[in-house]
Amino acid sequence: MYMKFGRVKPARYLFDEMPVRNEVSWNTMMSGLVRVGLYLEGMGFFRKMCDIGIKPSSFVIASLVTACGRSGSMFREGVQVHGFVAKSGLLSDVYVSTAILHLYGVYGLVSCSRKVFEEMPDRNVVSWTSLMVGYSDKGEPEEVIDIFKGMRGEGVGCNENSMSLVISSCGLLKDESLGRQLVGQVIKSGLESKLAVENSLISMFGNLGNVEYANYIFDQMSEHDTISWNSIAGAYAQNGHFEESFRIFNSMRRFHDEVNSTTVSTLLSVLGHVDHQKWGRGIHGLVVKMGFSSVVCVCNTLLRMYAGAGRSEEAELVFQLMPTKDLISWNSLMACFVEDGRSLDALGLLCSMIRTRKSLNYVSFTSALAACFSPEFLDKGRILHGLVVVTGLFENQIIGNALVSMYGKIGEISESRRVLLHMPRRDEVAWNALIGGYAESEDPDKALAAFRTMRLEGVPANYITVVSVLGACLMPGDLLERGKPLHAYIVSAGFESDEHVKNSLLTMYAKCGDLSSSQDLFNGLDNRNIITWNAMLAANAHHGHGEEVLNLVSKMRRLGLSPDQFSFSEGLSAAAKLAVLEEGQQLHGLAVKLGFEQDCFIFNAAADMYSKCGEIGKVVKMLPPSVNRSLPSWNILISAFGRHGCFEEVCGTFHEMLEMGIKPGHVTFVSLLTACSHGGLVNQGLAYYDMIARDFGLKPAIEHCICVIDLLGRSGRLAEAESFISKMPMKPNDLVWRSLLASCKIYGDLDRGRKAAENLSKLEPEDDSVYVLSSNMFATTGRWEDVENVRKQMGFKNITKKQACSWVKLKDRVSSFGIGDRTHPQTLEIYAKLEDIKKLIKESGYVADTSQALQDTDEEQKEHNLWNHSERLALAYALMTTPEGSTLRIFKNLRICSDCHSVYKFVSRVIGRRIVLRDQYRFHHFESGLCSCKDYW
DNA sequence: TTAGGGTTAG
């Protein structure tokens, strides 16, 4: 009696005082202890009984085993009981063996459960259900359904628990036809009014994407518990109806007081999809206030929320502060690092999991494999491949897919194909990964061949397949042979209506050189999403239509669509290329207003824009302090100093970066070497070039070699430049010869120049620069016959020279000038102003340098031609129209002419104006008669 | 019976 009322003390006293104790007294005492939760003490009694040789009743054993499962930490005790039971022949008791199979299920050992199950002489619903629970907890819904079918096959009727289990497993498998059958069985078995069954039906329909039906069931229920509310909110959330999900949470607060940690997890997963800026931090605070901040699952969702918003530092902090972490926490943080590009951190996490003997599963390895996304990860990728084989995870479909993808991204495409061919089952994801790899390695033929084989093997293509194949055909020559037939396939296979496919088609046409088809596709789209707009932005950027990029961004805004990081970066880089400071500033301001201030892509794009618009001071101010500056920011800073002629700062910044322990990359050296070349720092540049391989283990790329050729050539060391080309680790391309030719022009080296021109025209027969440079070279050395010859060839091949153009921007108007331009409404005033300037600077000692003249005429005509240069017209106009003392900002599409450079210097001193001129390559800051380029450009 | 981690493209 005392035990029935949970009064342990008096019961134990009575038990201890009993002169004789029989089986019943022992059993009563033991089952009582288990009932009140004193599991370990119950276990002690069990051991004593075994020692004395008193047989516990099967009921008592079953409850003790159940207790071992419930405690969560009494696995060894449970196994001990199993041993006793097996010896004493109690396994034939259905209650005892069911309890034991349930115990193994709880501790994740489903194969042990199954063994016990198979050896049972007879089974009841609870035995079947217990086996199902084990598989359900392990995340194997297929098994659950198989067991359910076996149970039905043996004519065992189901109960509430087994029905709920199978319904939720069906939802996880997204098996619609089974779902329909189950609804029929629920009605037949009369379980339709059971709360647990109704709840699992809600979640099943949520998983099947049928929110209406989930909602119908919810509305029909006579009562709702917390699980019902959570299930319906989850159903809406899963299907993207986030607002509705919110509405449910609000009603929940009104009609149902109880909220649990699952409610909070669901709410958080919804918030991961809506405006993080607005809600994220608030909800984090709320979680703490509600006391859920130590629930593992809630913390995991919180971590995911920060990860989804691209804030890996905050996610890391959540992880560090978690009182207990499970496998999902570790996997989530690893995935977050991968998404944020922190591959080394992700792999470090895997290492510490292995080191501390944490349990790992296939998800851990898929993330680690995804971290290896570029050639430098080849060794690490191979090690992971080995680990995956050793642990037997190789058989896992998703791991196989991740391996195919990894080798593709690393550039080991033949290895990627080999993995695919050895897979027991090749699904569409595996094929898509292989096709993606071929696209990455720019091999459209192999991508299309893989696409054909895939279909021959009977694997149906999905929209990602189509997107990947399209992504492999992006060269101008691909359009007729591959792109258009693909478009035809897309239409016939019914992929045309897919948003992703449409966007990829748009990109394909643009990259293949057919911007107007892209435009047509864009115009024909009814619902353009952000990705469509971004694709169109990229298409225009690719064709150099910066103005259109900016137009599209403002059009987006007028239509009420917020630009995202991608749109802003594209817009900012367009503004940078056009050197339109006002537009760039407006975009940057808007990005900050929309909460992108901390986004590193955006502040880097903005910094680059300020640099290319001449605002060097702003760049220095806006980039993060050197302690937490990322590699792209360092690169931008170095190139900004180089572009503005601040060469001491270039070297200083580079060394500061090294002191901070940042390893320079490919881009760093391009910026560094370009700066040295423009600053005439020849020996310094050569030293930096040597560092690439020697000190940092990087392979010099052709871009670096071009910089060295430029460096040597511009300083007149033409023989060395030529010999460098012959010793380069790769084949010279057009840019190599163009650079050498340009240097030969400066120094009048006809022989080398001719050779360079020949090599260049072999590689780029249509290019105008070879003719322009050669004719300039001949002109400056007085070889007028050769000049005429080149001109004739150009006419013959229908090649036209790119026209020089300079412009000035005043408020919202751009005034541009060609050579000898007389189309401007204020032409007369402009030419009059030019005469004034000429007079003024001649009085100060200016003498025209006609040695660079390109026409065979007399001196007077040569000088007259110089005064028709576009940059001079722009200068005169700028002087006329801007307030005295303000800085003049002038742009030119080609390199500034050396005599104009001298005129600008005189003007800056004589008229006392600061002038900033941006030519094709760099900025010139003129002040008090000097230029920042120190006359070397 | 409800919630949290993964592969392909963008």
Detail the topology: elements first, then pairings.
Elements: H1 8-17, H2 23-35, H3 39-52, H4 58-71, H5 75-87, H6 94-106, H7 110-118, H8 125-137, H9 141-153, H10 160-173, H11 176-189, H12 195-207, H13 211-220, H14 226-238, H15 242-255, H16 261-271, H17 276-290, H18 296-308, H19 312-321, H20 327-339, H21 343-355, H22 362-371, H23 378-390, H24 397-410, H25 413-422, H26 428-440, H27 444-456, H28 463-472, H29 478-493, H30 499-511, H31 515-524, H32 530-542, H33 546-558, H34 565-578, H35 581-593, H36 600-612, H37 616-622, H38 631-643, H39 647-659, H40 666-679, H41 682-694, H42 702-714, H43 718-727, H44 734-747, H45 750-763, H46 769-780, H47 784-796, E1 806-810, E2 813-817, H48 827-843, H49 859-866, H50 870-881, E3 888-892, H51 898-910, E4 915-918, E5 923-927, E6 930-931
Parallel strand pairs: 3-4
Antiparallel strand pairs: 1-2, 1-3, 4-5, 5-6
This protein binds one DNA strand of 10 nucleotides through helix 10, helix 12, helix 14, helix 16 and helix 18.
